[in-house]
Hints:
The chain is mainly alpha-helical. The protein has six helices and three strands. β2 and β3 form a beta hairpin. α1 packs across α5 and α2 crosses α5.
Amino acid sequence: MTADPPRETPETTAPLATDRPGDTSPFALGLLLRRAHWRAAAVMTEALRPLGIELRHFAVLIVLVDRGPTVQRDLAEAAGSDKAGIMRVVDDLEHKGLAVRKGVPGDRRVRAVEITPQGMDLFNAAHAAAAAHAERLVADLRPGEPEQLVDLLTRVAHPVGGDA
C-alpha cells in the first residue's frame, strides 16, 4: 500500500513540486532542467537518427574528440555511463568503424578507445545535421536569449568552485 502524496491546503503554504510554468517549489529548477533535457535529447536523437547513431554513441565521440584516446574506465565516467554500458557503446562504435580499441603501452589489461577518421567525419556531419534541430529548441526565445541561456546553464553545470 502506498501513501497518497501530501496535498496543498490553505493551512500549508509549501508549493507542490511540478515542472509547470510558475512553480515556486525548491524542486522547480531541477524539474525544469530535467524536462528541458528530455526535450533536447528527443530533438538531438532525431538529428542523429539518419546518421545511424544514438545519443549514447555521440556522447562517447564527444569525449574522444575532446580528450583523444581514452581508457574505457575514464570514458565511462566522462560519458555518464557504467562499465557494461560503455562496453556496449564502444562495441557498437567499433562495429560501425567509428572507433577502435588499442592497447596501452605498459599495461596489457588496459585498452584505450580512439576515434577513427570515419568517426571524425560522422562527428562533423552530426554537427551539421543538428543545426536546424537545435534552432527548434530555442525558437520561442527572443534575440540574445539563446546565448544568455547557454551562459546561465554553463555556470550552473560548471560552477566556479567546482562543486558537482
